[in-house]
Amino acid sequence: MTGLETKKNLKKPMKFILAFFICFTFFFSRLSYAMVLDDPNPEASDFAKAQVGDWAAQSKLGYYYLNEHHGVKADGAEAEKWYVKAAQQDIKGLQYKLGLRYFEGTPAFPRNDEKSFYWLYAFRTSATPLA
Fold this sequence. Notes:
Elements: H1 3-37, H2 44-51, H3 55-67, H4 76-87, H5 92-104, H6 113-125
Helix pairs in contact: 1-3, 1-5, 2-3, 3-4, 4-5, 5-6
């Protein structure tokens, strides 16, 4: 088998892997957004639920602080705090999303390769199955 034939044999699996990664990324990028849409009028109960460890409420608060929703002023440090608390509960989608946020870098989540690796590795090795 020549080098050219080997390249041709690898093209199909690489296209499949790339398509899978794109679909996977799209699904998880919509996960936190979908959690916010189910409650158009958040109440103080979201804060109370987040304080006792409800990961969905913590994720919502992170989203609110990140995107200035429902009267909550934008605060990157608060957004990071709530997203990290939610991801620490072994929620694979949030671990993946947090790892990507650190990898991409934004004003609220400055690029940090160490934190990105930590959360993406936590996502990879998590015992929690995907939904």
